[in-house]
Design a protein that fits this description.
This protein is of the alpha/beta class. It contains 5 helices and 13 strands. The protein has one domain: Purple Acid Phosphatase, chain A, domain 2 (4-Layer Sandwich), CATH 3.60.21. Strands 1, 2, 3, 4, 11, 12 and 13 form a 7-stranded mixed sheet that branches.
Length: 268
Amino acid sequence: MKTRILFIGDIMGRPGRELCAQHLPTLRSRYDAIVANCENAAGGQGVTGEIAHALLDLGIDALTSGNHIWANRDVFAIIGKEDRLLRPLNYPSDPSIPGRGAGVYRVRGGLRLGVVNLMGRVFMKPIECPFRVGLAAVEELRQETPLVLVDMHAEATSEKQAMGWHLDGLATAVVGTHTHVQTSDETILPGGPAYITDVGMTGPHESVIGIKSEIILHGFLSAMPVKHEVAKGDARLEAVAIEADSETGRALKIERVRLRKGVMEELQ
């Protein structure tokens, strides 16, 4: 039996949320499971409880995040209660840090999908080792389901690629997020997982990774701190479509997806 999974790249502000609202009704009918990264969904940084629930109500089965998950204080009211909202699993094992970094979710057809949210350490906060934490989590989730998707939220391409090989033969998919630029290296690794270095961004592409280009240029030219503002125009939903064997958990196919605002392209 084949399972179709859609992973949506970093949702960026209102433009990204509007794209999801437009396309999710159709996408929901085509996929057995939908996962999305929401760490930029609220004004470009973080997520609120209201926004998280609105995205989940559109039919998303689980939301992953990353280094901006704590940007809105409002998230603390939801992240310990809503199991479908994940934060990176490899934050320190401290009871003062709320939320969870992995879960198993019931999706269409009675299938169960495991999701693991990890964060890299190269050029980012030196938290716990994502490789050791990630391996243990995938092995544990595979006791419940052969279908396990890993969101590796990281800056360095080498760290993302290394995670793909580290989980080769175990995960169904290892997908990279954080850099907001969709890469063209989607592949199936020898042991079975689908892999891509970065899924891309769901939001405004006439921008610098979702922020108004003039603001980013001013920051580079002046070396002064600038307040980011989400751009407008040329909004796109970027994702990867993964087909997997629901009994073995091995990926069979991975394809990049790009949908523009107002246009639903024909998906295979």
